[in-house]
Design a protein that fits this description.
This protein is mainly alpha-helical. The chain has 10 helices and no strands.
């Protein structure tokens, strides 16, 4: 993650500073169980693969890398607030690194897209980021269970009943989407497995 961030800064004409160190520190915070460095590195790997398949330019790939690194840099289990705070962190870090304002704004927009997980039809970099972020939904059942347990641990302060209600709402919203993934390669690779996992978890929550 550290090297990916610094390399992307250089690709876009900036000068790396200590922001990468802050990334490493934040993603190692003790209250995190799923939204850790491991998650970021998985998103980076999946985004790289999708970006290659879809022919993203070097500039767009660098923007996606920065957004992937920053998208959960602030994580306190506060949906909406976390994404906005992470986007603000990204703008401040990229401004310090000397990136052009339009590039900082572009990364900010991609981070904020993870709030709704919706991308404009012609926004391929956003689609790549969002699909990579949701790749975990298609994980093998044991890995998916670990993911769910990790997120539940991050919401440990939430009582079980409230957790079941909130999590069920999230899963219902996912299941209601015509397609979970935006890009064709992601749909071909992950859609079926992701829907099976979501349905399995929903059924488990419904039965208490």
């Amino acid at each position: 993650m550290r090297q990916a961030w610094d390399d992307a800064i250089c690709t876009l004409g900036g000068t790396p500073d200590r922001a990468a160190d802050d990334l490493v520190t934040r993603y190692a915070e003790p209250h995190r169980r799923y939204h850790t460095t491991r998650h970021v590195e998985a998103v980076l790997a999946d985004a790289d693969r999708l970006g290659t398949e879809l022919g993203l330019t070097a500039r767009d790939r660098a923007v996606v890398v920065l957004a992937a690194c920053a998208h959960d840099v602030v994580y306190d289990a506060r949906p909406g607030e976390d994404e906005r705070a992470s986007a603000a962190w990204a703008v401040a870090a990229l401004t310090r690194a000397g990136l052009a304002p339009e590039l900082a704004s572009r990364v900010e927009a991609l981070v904020l897209a993870t709030l709704t997980h919706e991308a404009a039809p012609d926004d391929l970099p956003a689609a790549v980021l969002l699909d990579a972020d949701l790749a975990i939904l298609a994980a093998p059942p044991a890995d998916y269970a670990d993911y769910v347990a990790g997120v539940r641990a991050e919401y440990a302060a939430v009582p079980d009943d409230a957790w079941r209600t909130g999590r069920s709402a999230v899963l219902e919203a996912l299941a209601a989407r015509a397609e979970l993934y935006v890009t064709a390669p992601a749909r071909a690779r992950w859609e079926a497995a992701a829907r099976a996992n979501v349905a399995r978890e929903s059924a488990a929550l419904a039965h208490g």
